[in-house]
Specification:
Blueprint: E1 5-6, E2 9-10, H1 11-15, E3 30-32, E4 38-40, H2 41-49, E5 57-58, E6 65-68, H3 80-92, E7 113-115, E8 121-122, H4 124-132, E9 141-143, H5 144-148, E10 170-174, E11 179-182, H6 183-187, E12 195-197, H7 203-219, H8 221-256, H9 258-310, H10 313-331, E13 345-348, E14 364-367, E15 402-405, H11 414-418, E16 429-432
Antiparallel strand pairs: 1-2, 3-4, 5-6, 7-8, 7-9, 10-11, 10-12, 13-14, 15-16
Helix pairs in contact: 7-9, 7-10, 8-9, 9-10
């Protein structure tokens, strides 16, 4: 049975971050966007291939403009943290599906162990080779069972390598540049800088406090957004209910003066639709915006929380700048949580008006709203003001004719039907054409 916690990491807690939202598979070589969403490197490259020459990449989930051109996609940082969490998930599910050996070209062999120094999963053959080669024979290798029983994350985190000197691990913290660097960086690019060994640096904890404070500030907006989304959705539901009620009132009044008021009925129903569609459109757009804001805040906070909980020092350093920038950007976002519309939609009628003013006797629709501009709302193709039970507009493309006959087969004139004399004939035959 797979464990729920490995080395202090709650596997179920991180599992929702391990699938690429584009290919729907386990994420591979995750690339991190500025919005803190990660996707497979291949998936991001496929997105970039579709960009126009002057177009920038936007996150397919939260629509945030990454301000990255097709040529700059290769410079997106690798999400070391997510890579490590993926390894933990693979180890956790090893009792159901063997972990593939990452050292074999075919990836078909099942791994039985993992090299802590290299971060590679090894099958039996690769393990034997690893122990024979001079450069790797002193490496620390743990079996899958030992990894599952591990109480510390040090054995599970992959070593992070320098993006400039690819074979060198990031072991030092350059205080001057505020980034993790390798031994060669210290000797060359950063030789005049102030640096310290990452494990001994007290500056790392300060960086974690900065990220934690930003996370705390950002996470406070999530319940506010959730409440606003529910409020806007509630108004939309109430507005839809008021639309149905108002239409029922309109139809009831129309039936009393059907011959004279049919045209007026149609106009009022269309006006009700226009008001509803106008309000609903405003509310829907606001809800969409709120949901996008919610997705951005939730993604940023979720990812930052996972990093704060499970990332080691190197991973935190590699992600700190992007997390800080993203959380700062989110915290500076002006949230428009006040509903842009209300559910007010009233029907006013004076049925005692004389027949000479019958065109006005159906009354008018009453509403209010700060953002409602009826002239800007387009109605769907001719619906004659009709809606289905679900509230959707119903097109009346095919005309329907009805014949009503008495029991002897004689066709009844419309006047007889309108005057309510049908009961005099007993059982009637109705034919639909």
């Amino acid at each position: 049975m797979a464990s729920q916690t490995i080395a202090g990491v709650n596997v179920e807690d991180i599992s929702r971050h391990l699938n690429c939202s584009l290919c729907r598979r386990l994420i591979r070589t995750p690339r991190l966007l500025p919005c803190l969403h990660s996707f497979c490197q291949v998936c991001v490259q496929n997105l970039a291939e579709k960009l126009a020459p002057n177009e920038f990449l936007a996150c397919p989930l939260c629509k945030t403009d990454a301000k990255i051109s097709k040529e700059e996609v290769e410079n997106l940082p690798i999400n070391f943290f997510l890579d490590n969490m993926l390894d933990i998930a693979l180890i956790n599910s090893s009792d159901r599906e063997p972990v593939p050996c990452s050292n074999c070209d075919s990836f078909n062999s099942a791994a039985t162990s993992r090299c802590v120094d290299c971060g590679e999963f090894l099958c039996e053959n690769c393990y034997n080779v690893h122990k024979r080669i001079r450069q790797t024979k002193e490496h620390k290798i743990l079996t899958i069972s030992e990894l599952l029983a591990s109480k510390t994350g040090d054995d599970l985190h992959r070593p992070a390598f320098c993006r400039i000197h690819h074979s060198e691990q990031l072991k030092y913290y350059c205080e001057t540049c505020n980034e993790a660097v390798c031994r060669d960086c210290v000797l060359m690019e950063h030789r005049q800088h102030k640096y310290d060994y990452i494990k001994d640096s007290k500056k790392i904890q300060k960086q974690k406090v900065i990220v934690a404070n930003l996370f705390e500030q950002c996470s406070e907006n999530i319940p506010v957004l959730e409440k606003s989304i529910k409020e806007v959705q509630g108004i939309s539901d109430t507005l839809r209910g008021r639309l149905a009620a108002v239409k029922a009132e309109i139809r009831e009044a129309t039936l009393k003066q059907i011959k004279v008021l049919k045209e007026k009925e149609r106009k009022l129903l269309m006006e009700a639709d226009r008001i509803h569609n106008g309000k609903a459109t405003i509310l829907r757009r606001q809800k969409d915006q709120l949901e996008e804001d919610f997705a951005r805040f939730k993604a940023g906070c979720d990812f930052s929380e996972q990093v704060l909980k499970y990332a080691n020092e190197v991973e935190l350093l590699s992600l700190k700048t992007q997390i800080t920038e993203r959380l700062t950007e989110l915290n500076n976002t002006e949230l428009d949580c006040q509903p842009h519309e209300n559910a007010e939609l009233e029907y006013e009628v004076n049925s005692k008006e004389a027949e000479t003013v019958v065109a006005q006797s159906l009354g008018s629709l009453k509403t209010s709203g700060l953002h409602l501009v009826l002239e800007d709302i387009e109605l769907p193709p001719s619906t004659n003001g009709s809606t289905s039970d679900s509230g959707e507009d119903v097109r009346q493309d095919a005309p329907l004719s009805v014949e009503v006959r008495d029991p002897s087969g004689i066709l009844l004139p419309p006047e007889t039907i309108h005057q309510g004399k049908l009961l005099l004939f007993g059982i009637l035959k109705i034919h639909f054409n």
